[in-house]
Amino acid sequence: MWNRQVIFAMSLSTLLFASGCGGGGGGSTTVVSTDTFQLRTAYVNHLTATRSVPFTASGTIDGINVSGNGTVTEGALTSTTFELQGALQKVTAVTGTLNANGRTIPLSSSSTEFVDTNYNPLGSIGEEYEVVSSSVTIPATARVNSTGVWYTATTYTTSAKLTPTGTSSVSFALEPDTASTALLKIISVDKNTLGSTTFTNTVTFRMTPSGTLTRISETGVWPSGSFLTIVY
Question: Which site from 104, 144, 168, 173 is most exposed, i.e. has the minimal number of CB atoms within 10 Å?
Answer without folding.
Answer: 104
